[in-house]
Design brief:
With about 500 residues, the chain is an alpha/beta fold. Helix content is about 30%, strand content about 25%. It is an enzyme of class 2 (transferase).
């Protein structure tokens, strides 16, 4: 008995077949235990369970799916929608007899006509006959209805737990939360509990998230983790924890591709820092970010660009017209350019995409254009700031140069943004319009850096067919600190044909 117990304690974790969930569980579920997977209908419990059994099949383990509510056809239909086959996985159905032909070889029980004890006995009989390594029981709501009392229900579940405890199998029990609110009987019985949730927003697709409520003897990654149901199963996006990710990198500054902008920044962009580019619409924030991006690509670096506001085709066309054609870098794989629909993307999926770009694709620069649209993918501003803080900390520890674009309301005068994230930024670049000699011109200044002694001047810049040009420092501004600077014509050398 002691040898068996010792062997179980040192058994390798049972992987679920869902990489993100296994990461949350630090390798998988502790083997030979009974677990509860709970969630309302439509949250993905059946898909998770099939992932679990198919992973076992891939590893040569026998799997058994015991269903009290769905038919074999329904399960095969779910599997087919994901491109799966359930061959070599035993299905044991406890449903009405008239749903099957007499040729069916499955054991049939009538839950509406038999006692709960007989139903449980039928489950035990099938497990003893097949001797599976992985078992799914779907779902406990039918057993709860048959029990007619909480005491009887708990005793039968305990009987199942003790039965499985004597066998070398890992068990998932699915529950659709039809019990009374606050009923935690199953939580106390199960070795671990995974809760699945979904919520509908006022606009856009539903959001799904999971949480490991309990896992005895395992230091799992707590909190909520976003997930989606894709063709091929559940895709879980573990909550990004920056402290778990460190990498060695060269902190030497790199050029933006513009000598004047490098001088404003002190000596260029520093790896492991993030730069916030802020200003009104049309001032040139995206063009400046693309210029920095192209400079990195020309050095042979890889980069990822996340486009929230603009159409992908428009960005490519406009960049090419300014002499910054991104298509060659897309074709050779140096650049990952993804157009994001905030209404369809969860925060966890976005951070997972950034993490993949860094760790899998080797991106050394990440551009987020813009934070205004990204904000609408979050349930509240507080969550956005926390999410962005963790993401920026992760990118910093990986030595990534991050560029974030933030649009401000208005064009002239008092400019404001619905989101203040400047305190998270290592560098803040402010772009403004100003008037001189009867012409609307553009200016750029760096108002904050944490890495170098930056230039504290205001420079004019211009965007034309030849690209982006940075002028000499301007000294004719008054009222800069008031937030409404005015330009006083003097001896400054303004850019020609601005």
């Amino acid at each position: 008995m002691n040898d068996t117990t010792t062997g179980r304690e040192h058994a390798a974790p049972t992987q679920t077949g869902i990489a993100g969930l296994d990461h949350i569980l630090r390798g998988g579920l502790p083997a030979y235990r009974l677990y509860l997977v709970e969630g309302t209908p439509g949250t993905g419990k059946t898909t998770l369970a099939l992932n679990f059994l198919l992973e076992g099949r891939k590893r040569g383990e026998t799997g058994l799916y015991i269903t009290l509510s769905e038919t074999a056809d329904e399960l095969h239909s779910v599997a087919h929608s994901h491109g799966w086959s359930l061959d070599d996985i035993d299905l044991f159905e406890l449903v009405a007899e008239n749903e099957f032909s007499i040729e069916n070889e499955q054991s049939l029980l009538h839950p509406s006509e038999v006692e709960l004890g007989e139903t449980v006995a039928g489950i035990i009989e099938q497990v003893e006959r097949i001797d599976p390594a992985r078992v799914v029981l779907d779902s406990l709501s039918e057993l709860r209805l048959l029990s007619q009392s909480a005491l009887r229900y708990r005793r039968q579940i305990l009987a199942l737990k003790h039965f499985f405890a004597k066998r070398d199998c890992t068990v998932l029990m699915l529950d659709d939360r039809t019990s009374e609110p606050g009923d935690l009987q199953l939580h106390s019985i199960a070795h671990g509990v995974v809760s699945l949730e979904q919520s509908a927003s006022a606009f856009g697709s539903e959001r799904r998230r999971l949480r490991v409520i309990k896992m005895r003897g395992l230091k799992y990654r707590g909190g909520y983790h976003d997930f989606t149901i894709e063709q091929g199963g559940l895709c879980v996006y573990p909550r990004l924890i920056a402290s778990e990710h460190h990498a060695e990198f060269d902190p030497a500054p790199v050029s933006t591709g513009l000598a004047g902008l490098d001088r404003l920044l002190g000596n260029g962009l520093v790896p492991g820092t993030n730069t916030l580019i802020t200003g009104p619409a049309g001032v040139g924030k995206t063009t400046t970010a693309v210029k920095c991006l192209v400079a990195a690509l020309e050095r042979g670096a890889r980069a990822a660009y996340y486009l929230f506001d603009e159409r992908l085709a428009t960005l490519l066309q406009r960049s090419a017209a300014l002499g910054m054609d991104l298509r060659p870098y897309l074709e050779n794989g140096q650049l990952t350019l993804r157009q994001i629909d905030p209404a369809e993307l969860s925060p966890g999926e976005f951070s997972g995409s950034v993490q993949e770009a860094v760790e899998t694709d080797g991106a050394s620069m990440v551009v987020i254009d813009s934070l205004n649209a990204y904000m609408h993918s979050m349930p509240s501003d507080n969550f956005l700031v926390l999410q962005m803080h963790e993401l920026l900390s992760y990118l910093s520890q990986q030595g990534i140069i991050s560029l974030m674009i933030l649009g401000q309301h208005g064009v002239l005068g008092d400019l404001r943004s619905e989101l203040d994230i400047s305190y998270l930024a290592d560098t803040v670049m402010l772009m403004r319009f100003f008037e001189a000699e009867g012409t609307v011109r553009k200016s750029v200044s760096v108002i904050k850096t944490r890495t170098s002694d930056h230039e504290r001047t205001i420079r004019e810049f211009d965007i034309n067919a030849s690209g982006l040009t940075i002028g000499e420092p301007l000294t004719g501004f008054a009222g800069v600190l008031s937030g409404n600077p005015n330009y006083i014509p003097g001896n400054d050398k303004l850019l020609k044909d601005a």
